[in-house]
Write a structure and sequence with these properties.
The complex is a heterodimer of chains A (about 290) and B (about 300).
Chain A: H1 3-15, H2 18-33, H3 37-51, H4 60-69, H5 80-94, H6 100-109, H7 113-121, H8 133-140, H9 145-152, H10 157-161, H11 164-176, H12 193-208, H13 218-221, H14 228-239, H15 245-253, H16 264-269, H17 271-278, H18 284-291
Chain B: E1 2-4, H1 14-23, E2 25-31, H2 42-53, H3 55-61, E3 66-71, H4 81-95, E4 100-107, H5 113-129, E5 133-136, H6 142-155, E6 163-166, H7 173-178, E7 182-186, H8 195-205, E8 210-213, H9 225-235, H10 240-255, H11 264-267
Parallel strand pairs in B: 1-2, 2-3, 3-4, 4-5, 5-6, 6-7, 7-8
Helix pairs in contact in B: 2-4, 4-5, 8-9, 9-10
Classes of the chains: A mainly alpha (about 290), B alpha/beta (about 300).
Chain lengths: ~290, ~300
């Protein structure tokens, strides 16, 4: 098991009664030897019945360890059933069974809502695996926000595993289903010129329809806004009345390579906000906490 | 507050959810059934069952309605042996999904040998997974079919308190209640019960172990069957407590035996967090709040 899985296991044990933990251990041992679909389905189905759906209880020490070892995953928000199911799936992934991808896709196909969330969240524990690509593509096509976010939010897997096309569509879809971008791990690192173009087009569609445009998206546009029309979009966002739009646009503009990103009149007009950015009083973190 | 313990919501549009929510429906149970025409491949069956344990729950939650379902091979499709065998193999996997409150709807259609075979196999499955049973009684040769369904349950040692016998009428209700089963009535225009007749039954039999459902589906049917029956019953002098039992409490008591359906699900829904947002109202596509108006349905109250 990798460090995240080991840590999750420790916390889960802390959260369960001895009886519950013994049941869980016995099922994991059984799945080592019994490779039938039935044993797997029954185990996954029984987990919430036997172990409940409470949040995992974290000791301060374990929580600190989690923050250090896997800051992106936010393990402290996992529920007992999600953690237990993820560990079972992770065992399976590490068992070397050649048909894991097939089994995984099959589980996803017949999963109820909470199972879907657990199955997709389990990828937080995985190393990139091309064979899972189809199943995760299906997961991202969901219209159920919580399922989508099990993949997209607080999960290091997409950053490591998705190609640019899938990444860009995940980010765009997050906006479409009224989700948010900030919890996407690697949002800035994986931003790219094509995504910037897609997001500017998206903003224009929203403006044309008279709908609000979240300033979060400018975070992915700023560093790639080399064209005049992209810069014009950022400047338009500066004037947008949507709460947080001016602040978001400025955060994007300070990272924009365009020579006219922040001409003197704009610097003057927004001097206080720019000063806040300069001393890191306004960051994307604080923006997210204030406006989302 | 109402529960509609038999509604094929997969065939209904969002307007129906909206009207049901406005009329006070807090929970629905979606029995696995056919879709108006027989399926011919197990794959379509798998996708159907996945929908009713997954996406349909989400769809309902958008209107603040909690969605549960039953899992089973229905009697019509039990007559396709190749399909039936394949479906029986996948049923155990679905029976353990969250929100599955019974094995059903199962029973007889034409009372063929194959229907009998798969009915019995599913009674055994229900015992194994400790779930209640929802019985679909046949449209044709109803009275004998209903008696036979109960005989077979007893042959298999199933406790009547775990069995809801559905689609009752004036001819079947006495025996079903006398033998200790739950008796459900589908307020379905033309082919099943009308609500004026239903009120007469309530006046005659009281409210113990009786429940009302709409059985709304792809046919001409009425998703407000439960709400309208409640209103009519109150107008015609049925005691409030009786109406509450047949339109809410009895369904909860019967299907709550699954351990998968609790009043808390709608009275104290879990906090909206990362893992359960789909259960709250905040997960709407496009961020649009559902418009649930207070406007009560102005249609004629009678369903006949």
């Amino acid at each position: 098991m990798n460090t995240t899985a080991t840590l999750l296991c420790d916390c889960l044990q802390e959260s369960l009664s001895n009886e519950q933990w013994r049941w869980f251990e016995s099922r994991r041992r059984l799945l080592n030897t019994d490779t039938s679909d039935q044993a797997l389905h029954v185990t996954l189905g029984m987990i919430p019945r036997k172990m409940g759906r409470a949040s995992i209880s974290w000791t301060p020490t374990l929580e600190q360890t989690a923050l250090t070892l896997c800051p992106d995953t936010r393990l402290s928000h996992w529920s007992v059933d999600t953690a237990a199911r993820a560990l079972v799936i992770n065992d399976l992934a590490n068992s070397g069974r050649h048909d894991f991808a097939n089994t995984y896709a099959n589980l996803c196909r017949t999963a109820d809502l909470n199972e879907q969330i657990s199955l997709y969240r389990a990828t937080s524990l995985f190393e990139p695996d091309d064979a899972l690509d189809t199943a995760l593509g299906e997961g991202l096509r969901t219209s159920i926000q919580a399922v989508f976010e099990a993949i997209a939010h607080h999960n290091p897997y997409p950053q490591k595993a998705f190609d640019t096309h899938r990444w860009n569509h995940m980010v765009l879809k997050a906006l479409f289903i009224d989700s948010t971008l900030h919890p996407i791990v690697g949002l800035e690192e994986r931003s790219n010129p094509e995504l910037a173009i897609i997001l500017c087009d998206y903003a224009h569609e929203r403006w044309a329809a008279g709908r609000a445009v979240t300033a979060e998206l400018w975070r992915c546009v700023g560093p790639f806004a080399t064209r005049d029309e992209q810069l014009a979009d950022l400047h338009r966002a500066l004037e947008d009345a949507t709460p947080g739009s001016t602040q978001g646009a400025l955060l994007a503009l300070v990272n924009c390579p365009h020579p006219d990103a922040l001409p003197e009149p704009l610097r003057e007009k927004h001097s206080r906000t720019l000063a806040d950015i300069g001393r890191e009083k306004l960051t994307w973190d604080s923006w997210y906490k204030t406006y989302v | 507050m109402f529960i509609d313990p038999h509604a094929h919501m997969i065939s209904r549009v969002t307007d129906d959810y909206q009207r049901m929510a406005a009329a006070g429906v807090v929970a629905v149970i979606e029995p696995a059934f056919w879709l108006g025409q027989p399926r011919t491949h197990v794959g379509t069956y798998i996708d159907y069952l996945s929908s009713i344990v997954g996406f349909e729950r989400f769809r309902a939650s958008q209107f603040g309605i909690r969605h549960y379902c039953t899992i089973g091979l229905n009697s019509k499709e039990a007559n396709n042996e190749e399909l039936a065998e394949a479906v029986m193999e996948i049923l155990p996997r679905f029976a353990l999904k969250e929100g599955v409150v019974a094995i059903g709807e199962i029973g007889y259609d034409e009372q063929t040998e194959l229907e009998d075979k798969y009915f019995r196999l599913q009674l055994e499955l229900a015992k194994e997974v400790e779930l209640p049973i929802m019985i679909h009684t046949p449209h044709r040769d109803k009275k004998r079919g209903t008696s036979r369904s109960m005989d077979v349950c007893e042959e298999h040692g199933v406790d009547p308190s775990m069995v809801v016998v559905d689609h009752n009428n004036e001819e079947t209700v006495r025996e079903v209640l006398d033998r200790g089963y739950w008796a459900a009535f589908s307020i379905y225009p033309s082919t099943k019960m009308g609500n004026a007749r239903m009120v007469e039954i309530l006046a005659g039999y009281g409210a113990d172990r009786i429940m009302v459902d709409s059985a709304c589906d792809w046919g001409i049917s009425e998703p407000l069957g439960v709400a309208k029956t409640a209103k009519l019953a109150l107008q015609r002098g049925i005691p409030v407590e009786h109406v509450r039992k047949v339109c809410y409490q009895n369904a909860l008591d019967a299907y709550g035996q699954s351990g998968q359906m609790n009043e808390d699900d709608w009275l104290n829904p879990p906090a909206i967090d990362q893992r359960s947002v789909y259960e709250g109202n905040s997960i709407l596509r496009g961020g649009r709040e559902p418009i649930i108006t207070d406007a009560r349905d102005k249609d004629d109250l009678l369903i006949s």
